[in-house]
């Protein structure tokens, strides 16, 4: 259920809201962000994480291992999930994430990160939300999937702050 206009315009949810309406997260809601990971992103991540696997840094090594080009670190791609959630719910506390790396992501590919609220429970004036998490390339090709649990102070969505 990927809608091209949502992907290109960075709109947060499949539901449409008027700008004056309060946007509350509900079960089934989907939030998306698109990102293209550059060679500089991979280099910076390798420095911070100290993951210097040559599959990420050396195109010839990656091709010799059977890949088309340099790989983006899977954990860097998966970092889209907490970014999507925190950009809509500042103060959200990420407590768990399962990940399945299905296909490689190459430097320069457009990736769509998607989180879908699967279960929302109120607990001590906060909310515990279980999200389905997925990343796609080429529109509908699944590259990563999993689940996240997040403690949120509110279900009121803030407008997305775009910062690259």
UniProtKB/TrEMBL annotation:
InterPro entries: HotDog_dom_sf, MaoC-like_dom, UPF0336/Enoyl-CoA_hydratase. The lineage of its organism: Eukaryota, Viridiplantae, Streptophyta, Embryophyta, Tracheophyta. Pfam families: MaoC_dehydratas (PF01575). One of its GO terms (cellular component) is mitochondrion. GO terms for molecular function: (3R)-hydroxyacyl-[acyl-carrier-protein] dehydratase activity. It comes from Cephalotus follicularis. Residues 34-126 form the MaoC-like domain. One of its GO terms (biological process) is fatty acid biosynthetic process. This is MaoC_dehydratas domain-containing protein. SUPFAM superfamilies: Thioesterase/thiol ester dehydrase-isomerase (SSF54637).
